[in-house]
Write a structure and sequence with these properties.
Helix content: 40-55%
Strand order of the largest sheet: 1-4-5-6-7
Number of helices: 10
Number of strands: 10
Number of domains: 3
Oligomer: single chain
Order of helices and strands: HHHHHHEEEEEEHEEEEHHH
Radius of gyration: 24 Å
Structural class: alpha+beta
């Protein structure tokens, strides 16, 4: 009974998640939607992240369609048709949404990927020994490559040779600072932006206080207010590739009442972003280390409350992406000594290689704890059910 209920339940959950995430009105983003053309593939400053998330959103739908007995072509057709209907609704009925050709492409690819994944699941879950070793090798190298690429993406781009300082600039897609900027200062060693202000009304979007920019006004570093938060960000390689830009925020630093003197400061030193807000005799400080585990922050459109958890979100991200390697290593039927040796080697390289290559901060003890746990769990799952010989007669675990 549970197996019969599985496909319809997954389909309903997938449809519910898609409709909720794509048709919720977002009036605050109405201005941004007017600036993006409908025929773009990677739309806006975070277009690559949106494209990848749109693929992931439709993966469960494609899997559910195949689980119900349809093929890949029907999953692709349904995903594309549903995406077109959603984009039409966003264009005509839903406020603050951004219909785009790129969304349809990404959603169709997601449905196709989900369908293909489910069809391949028996061979992935019960691979032959030879295939398991190949899959483990590919997954291990892929995980190492992920940490290296992420490490490069969170590197700050070179500072402008002749930067310009912009005070409370009026830009598209940001809010004008409602208070008054009394003075700013910029230090270069280490990089530090300082602003003395009199606060105004709380903002709903980012309100820049001071920016360091290229001559063409492209932002390199920004110290800003966002509601009761002080924020600081610098331009990273991820920014250039239209992924999310990890920033640091200090929460509840600005009182609800307006017209209060405050000192804001943002600093980049040794691959650590720091923001500090002082109001009266109260100082609030928060830091974010730039580490190889920040892959989640390059994709997810939020960072609260995750940014209050230190290095643990990054450690969990690294652990989750390590699981396939550990699982297939268990399926490969190697000796315990080989399992331990390969596991320790891959973990050591993945956690430390980008730190050595790019001068980043390490994800540290949390990464070792989470990745070590993931390796043990994945290996245990891989060792389970080894009486299945190859994939010829194996059935998918659903």
């Amino acid at each position: 009974m549970r197996l019969r209920a599985g496909p319809p339940a997954l389909l309903l959950l997938a449809l519910g998640a898609i409709l909720w995430l794509t048709l919720e009105p977002l009036p605050a983003q109405a201005e941004a939607t007017q600036l993006s053309p409908w025929n773009c593939l990677f739309c806006g400053t975070q277009g690559s992240a949106d494209f990848l998330l749109n693929i992931a959103l439709f993966v469960p739908l494609g899997a559910a369609v195949v689980w119900l007995g349809a093929g890949r072509s029907k999953a692709l057709a349904l995903g594309t048709a549903l995406s077109l209907a959603i984009e039409l609704a966003q264009a005509t009925l839903v406020a603050g949404r951004d219909p785009a050709f790129g969304d349809v492409v990404a959603n169709g690819l997601g449905a196709l990927a989900g369908a293909s994944l489910l069809l391949a699941l028996p061979g992935l879950w019960y691979p032959s020994i030879t295939r398991a070793r190949r899959l483990a090798t590919a997954a291990g190298l892929g995980w190492l490559l992920l940490t290296i690429v992420t490490g490069w993406l969170v590197l700050p781009v070179p500072i402008p040779s002749q930067p310009i300082v912009l005070v409370a600039p009026d830009r598209p897609l940001v809010e004008a600072f409602a208070g008054r900027v009394l003075g700013v200062a910029v230090d270069s060693q280490p990089l530090r932006l300082n602003a003395r202000v009199v606060t105004g009304a709380l903002t709903e979007r980012v309100a820049p206080l001071v920016e360091l920019a290229y001559p063409d006004s492209t932002v390199w570093a920004r110290l800003a207010q966002l509601g009761q938060k002080g924020t600081f960000a610098v331009r990273l390689n991820s920014t250039r590739f239209r992924l999310m830009t990890p920033e640091v925020r200090v929460h509840r630093a600005i009182p609800m009442t307006g017209s209060i003197p405050a000192d804001f400061s943002g600093m980049l030193e040794n691959a650590v972003l720091t923001v500090e807000v002082t109001v009266a005799d109260s100082t609030h400080v928060h830091q974010r280390a730039l580490t190889p585990g920040l892959g989640w922050a390059l994709l997810l459109p939020f960072n609260y409350p995750l940014d209050h958890m230190g290095l643990w979100p990054s450690a969990i991200w690294l652990a989750l992406t390590l699981l396939p390697f550990a699982f297939w290593l268990g399926r490969a039927r190697l000796s315990t000594a080989w399992h331990v040796g390969l596991g320790v080697a891959v973990l050591a390289l993945g956690i430390n290689l980008s730190t050595w290559l790019f001068g980043l901060q390490s994800d540290g003890i949390p990464a070792w704890i989470c990745c070590g746990t993931a390796f043990l769990v994945g290996r245990a799952l891989g060792l389970a059910g080894l009486h299945h010989e190859g994939t010829k007669d194996a059935k998918a675990p659903y």
